[in-house]
Amino acid sequence: MCETAAVAKRNEGAPRKKHSDSPRPVSLRQLAEHLGLSPTTLSLVLNDSPAASSIPQGTKDRIFEAARGLNYRPHFVARSLRTQRSHTLGVLVPEISGGYTAEVLGGIEERLLQAGYFYIVACHRHDSDLLEEYPRLFLERRVDGIIAVDTRWVDRVSVPAVSVSGHQDIEGVTNIILNHDKAAQLALGHLFELGHCRIAFIKGQVFSSDTQVRWESIQQAAQNLQIEIRPSLTVELEGDSPSSEPGYVATRKLLESRDRFTALFAFNDISAIGAIRALRESGLNTPDDVSVVGFDDVDAAAFNNPGLTTIRQPLRQMGQLAAETVLNRIDSRQQAPLPKSISVEPELIVRRSTARRRPGKLESSTR
Amino acid sequence: MCETAAVAKRNEGAPRKKHSDSPRPVSLRQLAEHLGLSPTTLSLVLNDSPAASSIPQGTKDRIFEAARGLNYRPHFVARSLRTQRSHTLGVLVPEISGGYTAEVLGGIEERLLQAGYFYIVACHRHDSDLLEEYPRLFLERRVDGIIAVDTRWVDRVSVPAVSVSGHQDIEGVTNIILNHDKAAQLALGHLFELGHCRIAFIKGQVFSSDTQVRWESIQQAAQNLQIEIRPSLTVELEGDSPSSEPGYVATRKLLESRDRFTALFAFNDISAIGAIRALRESGLNTPDDVSVVGFDDVDAAAFNNPGLTTIRQPLRQMGQLAAETVLNRIDSRQQAPLPKSISVEPELIVRRSTARRRPGKLESSTR
DNA sequence: CTGACTTACTAAATCGATTTACTACGACTT
DNA sequence: AAGTCGTAGTAAATCGATTTAGTAAGTCAG
Hints:
By secondary structure, the first copy, chain A, is of the alpha/beta class. The first copy, chain A, is built from 14 helices and twelve strands. In chain A, strands 2-1-3-4-5-11 form a six-stranded parallel beta sheet, sandwiched between helices. In chain A, strands 7-6-8-9-10-12 form a six-stranded mixed beta sheet, with helices on both faces.
C-alpha cells in the first residue's frame, strides 16, 4: 500500500508521459527489488564481471530470466556516464551527397555496428569555421573517437582519430591513404599502352586533401613513362559543387587553350563525366577522339555512357579500416605503436571511355 | 596544501589518461570550487534558469567569465541522464549509397544541427531482422525521436517518429509524402503531349514504400489521359542492388516481350539510366526511338548522357521537413494535433531523354 | 519587535548505472 | 580455539550534471 502510494506520487510528479503508452522502462533498481537482490549483484551478473564468480548459477539464472521477462535494458546514457565511454564516434565529412562519402560511410557503418558503436555525422562543406567547430561539438558529446573523411584537421584532438585520405602529419592521427604512386602508374600506363602521349590533366580542388599528393604521383609516373606534362594541358577544378559542373567547366577551359590532346585524366569520376559532356559538345567523341580516365569508381562511373574507365579506390574498405583502427586505439589505449598511416591499393577498371589512339581530329590539327 | 594532496590523489586514483595530454575537462564542481560557490548556483546561472533571477549580475559575470576562462563544457552525457533528453535522433535508411538517401540525410542534417541535435544512422538493407532490431537499438540509446526513410515500420515506437515516403497508417507516425497524383500527371502529361501513347512502365521493387502508391497514381493519370496500360509493357524492378542493374534487367525483359513502345516511365533515375543502356544495346536511341522519364532527380540524372527528364522529388526539403516535424513533436509533447501526413510537391524537369514521338523502329514494326 | 518578503545562496536528492570495499556465515586447517 | 578461505552477497561512492526544497541574512510594514 505504501509502495502503491509512492508509485502514484512518482507518476504524478512526472506527468511527462512522452507518448500515450510508454510507462518508462524498468531500471536496474526496479529489477533488483523485484528479485529481492541488490542492484550490485544484478550488475555483476548481467555484465558477466569476474566478481560474479561467487554467485551460484541458480541465482544467475533467476536474474537473467527476470531481466528477459521484464524486458530490462540497461540505460545507455547512465552506463556511458559511469564508464566514460559513449560507444559513439564522430565522423566529419565534406558533405554526404556523392558517391565518395557515401561509400566510405557505408564501410564505417558496417564495422561500427558490429562492434556496438554508432556514429554521428557532421558536414563541414570545407567551411573553416565548421572545421573548427564540429570537432569541438563532437568532443562535447564525448565521442570515443573521430574519423575525418577528405578533411583537413585544424586542431589536434584528445581522442583517437583517423583520417581517410588525409595527408597531414598530426600527432595521434592515423591516415588511411591510397597508394597514389601505383594509381598514377596504372592510369598513365594504361593510356600509354593505348598509344596516348598528349594527355590532359584535371587536378583536384585546392581543398581536396588528395589533390597535392596525387599530382606529385602523376608527375612521377609521367616522368617514368617519358610523358610530357604540358602546363597548357593542365587545369584544376574550381568551386565546391558536388555535381559534374566543375569538370565540365575545367574541360571547356582545356579546349579553349587549343593545345591538343588525345586523352584526359580527371581528378575524379564526377568531373570525368562533366568532361565527357564538354568534349561531346565540342564535337569530340569519347573514346574515339579523346580517351577519358576517371578516379574513385563511384556507382555513377559504371552507369555512365560510355562506361567510365577509372582507378578504383577501395572506398568501402577504407571506411572499414578507419573504423577498425579507431576502435583498436580506443580499446588498447595507447598500447599499440599507432601506425602513422595505413595504405590501400588502387585498381584499374577498364570500361569504354578509353581506346587506342587514332589519328583523330584533335591531333591531326597540331601535327 | 590539503587541496594539492587531494588533487594528486585524484589523478593517481584515475590513471586512465586517454591520451598523452588530456587532463580531463573541468567539471561543474571544479568550477564551483574555484569560484567558491556551489554547483547549484552555477547551474542556475549558466542555464539562465528563472530561479537565477535573484543572483546579482556581478556574480553572474564572475561565473560566465570563469566558465570561459577554464573552458568549461557541461558534460553532455551527465546532462542527458538528468534531463532525459539525448538531443539525438535515430535515422533508419535502406542504405546510404545512392542519391536518394544521401539527399534526404543532407536535409535532415541541416535542420538538426541548427537545433543542436545530432543523429545516428543505421542501414537495414530491407532485412526484416534489422528492421526490427535497429529501432530497438535506437530506443536503447535513448534517442528522442526516429526518422525512417523509405522504410517499413515493424513495431510501433514510443518516441516521436516520422516516415519519409512512408505510407503506413501507424499511430504516432507522421508520413512525409510526395503528391504522387501530381507526379504521375506531370510525367504522363509530358509524354502525352509529345505524342506518346504506347508507354512502358517499370514499377518499383516490392519493398520500396512508394511502389504501390505511385503505381495507383499512374493508373489514375493514365486513365484520365486515356492512355492504355498494357500488362505486357509493365515490369518491376527486382533485387536490391543500388546500381542501375535492376533497371537494365527489367528493360531487357520489356524488350523481349516484343510488344512495342515509344516511351518508358521508370521508377527512379537509377533504373532509368539502366534502361537507357539496355535500349541502346538493342539499337534503340534515347530519345529518338524511345523517350525515357525517370524519377527523383538525383545528381546522376543531370550527369547522364542524355540528361534525364525526370520528376523531381524535393528530397532535401523532405529531409528538413522530417527533422522539423520530429523536433516539434519532441518539444510540444503531444500538444500539437499531430498531422497524419505532410505532402510535398513534385516538379517536372525536362532534359534530353524525352522527345516528340516519330514513326520509329519500334512502332512501325507493330502498326 | 514581529512577521512577511526579498536576496543570495546551498544541501541533498536524483537520473541509472558501475565499482570498490566491505559483511556475514560456514567450512576447513592447524 | 583461532585463523584462514570461500561463498553469497550488500552498502555506499561515483560519474557530472539538474532540480527541489530549503536556509540565513537583511529590509520593510504595521
